[in-house]
Specification:
277 residues; alpha/beta; D-Maltodextrin-Binding Protein, domain 2; Alpha-Beta Plaits; 3 domains; 9 helices; 15 strands; elongated; phenylalanine biosynthesis; EC 4.2.1.51
């Protein structure tokens, strides 16, 4: 049965691309904010949400780790999307005609080499797909957009150059969120478990909490800290580990973690995406 997947951004955004690549038979629902995408799933307007959490070049996506624990949703999958940046222009425009490129500041910064080589001025836009839409609406041949090829298809723009990003392996990781957890699956490439925790106020609490993962041979692929509640004394940690909580070694590690923490919240157990490698 086809599903509806909510994402933040306009049609043609890289989050839209993630929806298409991961669930090609489903309908993608654009939302103005991450909060709106989450609420769409909570309200039943959408079945899933596709949320970006980190980029290989620029690190974690702001605000997402704050939203996940209180969202009421559960991670049921992950998706890795290669960020290929295209220069999009009005049909019939040639590359020498382009004097300005509009996009999100992050994408503008990822194409410095190409833009400087062609003498193209950088213009800040609201986002990638929104810039493509604006270029199509304004109909100024001298202004192009930096966005996905999908955005070019949606807004009727020509691709003057593709894959122009400075870093050839730029990739964004997305989490697939659902109203209910699914602990029954086993992926061919292994499983991932994501959780947040707050350590107890005792000396070396974090060091002791992490010790159980090392002694039980659990690979931790991500550990990040961030402040909660507007105070410097309350720090929450987000972690991704390989394995399923039913695995003996991970079960022992989580048991030891529980002893040194005041709160542990498992956000999701899901198949490991082979594209991690």
């Amino acid at each position: 049965m086809p599903q509806t997947i909510a994402f933040q951004g306009e049609p043609g955004a890289y989050s839209h691309q993630a929806c298409r690549e991961t669930y090609p038979e489903s309908t993608a629902m654009p939302c103005r904010t991450f909060e709106e995408a989450i609420e769409a799933v909570r309200s039943g307007a959408a079945d899933l949400a596709m949320l970006p959490v980190e980029n290989s070049t620029f690190g974690r996506v702001a605000d997402i780790h704050h939203l996940l624990p209180g969202s009421g949703l559960h991670i049921i999958g992950e998706a890795f999307v290669r960020v290929k940046i295209a220069l999009l222009a009005l049909p019939g425009t040639s590359l020498p005609q382009v004097r300005r490129a509009m996009s999100h500041p992050m994408l503008l910064g990822q194409c410095r080499g190409f833009l400087e080589a062609h003498g193209i001025e950088r213009v800040t836009g609201a986002d990638t797909a929104g810039s493509a839409r604006q270029v199509a609406e304004n109909a100024e041949p001298q202004t192009a957009a930096l966005a996905s090829a999908l955005a070019g298809d949606i807004y009727g723009l020509d691709i003057l150059a593709d894959g122009i990003e400075d870093e050839g392996d730029n990739t964004t990781r997305f989490l697939v969120m659902a109203p209910a957890p699914d602990m029954t699956r086993r992926g061919d490439a292994g499983m991932m478990t994501s959780f947040v925790f707050t350590v107890r106020n005792i000396p070396a609490a974090l060091y002791k909490a992490m010790g159980g993962f090392a002694t039980n041979g659990v690979n931790m692929t991500k550990l990040e800290s961030y402040m909660v509640g507007g105070t410097f004394s309350a720090t929450q940690f987000y972690a991704d580990v390989e394995g399923h909580p039913d695995d003996a070694n991970l079960a022992l590690a989580l048991e030891e973690l529980d002893y040194f923490t005041s709160e542990v919240n498992i956000l999701g157990v899901y198949p490991r995406d082979p594209r991690r490698d």
